[in-house]
Design brief:
The protein is mainly alpha-helical. It is built from twelve helices and six strands. The strands form three sheets. Strands 1-2 form a two-stranded antiparallel ribbon. Strands 3-4 form a two-stranded antiparallel sheet. The chain is globular, with a radius of gyration of 31 Å.
Length: 349
């Protein structure tokens, strides 16, 4: 910091210069104590300071690049390269080894849009998202509201509600495969006890997508619960206290305080759950393998089937690019319309 001189004025700090030729002071901007400061130094001193400061900036840049390089390499290898490779293969007919053979341009996109199999996969994917996103979001909100209560032992219930986030897709699928078993499954046992008829959940075209949706909702429940309860705990308590003083009941507090303050969290969860729904694969592969009668053949699973069962890499790449564009457009639509109803701030005292 500049120090006051004898007359009380702030003088610029001086660094010792080199006597003799070039000792006339010049003004140089350097970093002192983490702040940019103007100092007056000799010409010879300036010649020594400026390259050092420039090298310090370059050293920081090189260090940041070195720290980011491993992540950037992995991101490019497993994200950008497959995307670019898919966009390239979508323009070609491919041989059984996945190599481009004949250039067809955009013809494969037009063929897919007219394909009944592709349209069926698109419809199944839309229904799957419709079953899982609103239900999962609503159930996660209810459990988060219950888990946010200040009760003795509530931590145990929070652990139970969030435990599904630690379960892998394979383990969860095997568990639900047992629960949905037509003869020894717990769900059919409960139906029989209630006087109903057992359902062949995974083999009945009417119920297969519902069964896969139940598994997916359970898989995503831990994530949804943790995200929403974190948003609930960030709501200022004084807002509820002021509302109670004014005579507001629990429903009024939920409608006028909780939902508006929770809207950014709900918006984030909606976007993520939608993306997950359009990219679900593991539970479908383990439970139904796209059947019966293609009733659970979502777009991701149809891409897998074309690539690794029919060895048609060109068609699989075309569907992958279309799926990417669909998810991108849906995300932009959600940001465009849902974000307008999202409340992002609270101004306290």
């Amino acid at each position: 910091m500049p120090l006051p001189d004898r007359q009380g004025r702030h003088a610029e700090p001086r660094l010792p210069g080199r006597g003799g030729l070039g000792s006339a002071p010049i003004r140089v901007t350097v970093a002192l104590g983490g702040r940019m400061t103007h100092v007056r130094v000799g010409v010879w001193r300036a010649v020594w300071i400026l390259p050092r400061a420039r090298w310090a900036r370059w050293r920081e840049t090189l260090l940041a690049a070195a720290l980011l390089a491993p992540s950037l390499v992995l991101l490019g290898l497993f994200t950008f390269y497959p995307l670019l490779r898919s966009a390239y293969l979508a323009l070609y007919r491919t041989d059984p080894f996945g190599q481009a053979s004949t250039f067809v341009g955009l013809a494969q996109y037009w063929d897919e849009l007219r394909s009944p199999a592709f349209r069926n996969s698109l419809l199944v994917t839309a229904l799957f998202a419709l079953y899982t996103v609103p239900s999962g979001l609503g159930l996660g909100l209810v459990l988060a509201l219950l888990g946010n209560q200040r009760l003795r032992g509530i931590g145990v219930f929070r652990t139970i509600f969030s435990s599904t986030i630690a379960s892998s897709v394979a383990v969860a699928s095997v568990m639900w495969l047992t629960l949905l078993h037509p003869t020894i499954g717990v769900i059919n046992y409960a139906l029989r006890e209630l006087g109903g008829r057992p359902i062949t959940w995974l083999n009945d075209p009417r119920w297969a997508l519902v069964a896969v949706s139940l598994t997916t909702i359970w898989l995503n429940l831990g994530f949804t619960f943790i995200v929403i309860i974190a948003g609930l705990q960030a709501v200022p308590e004084e807002l509820y206290e002021s509302a109670r003083v004014d005579g507001a009941g629990p429903f009024a507090c939920f409608r006028h305080i909780t939902l508006p303050m929770l809207s950014p969290t709900l918006f984030f969860a909606t976007v993520v759950l939608t993306i997950i729904a359009f990219e679900s694969f593991g539970q479908i592969d383990m439970l139904t393998q796209g059947g019966p009668l293609d009733r659970t053949n979502v777009l991701v699973y149809s891409i897998y089937s074309e690539a690794f069962r029919h060895f048609n890499q060109g068609v699989a790449a075309t569907r992958a690019v279309i799926l990417f564009l669909i998810v991108l457009v849906l995300s932009l639509i959600q940001f465009r319309f849902l974000e307008k109803r999202t409340f992002y701030g609270y101004i306290g005292e």
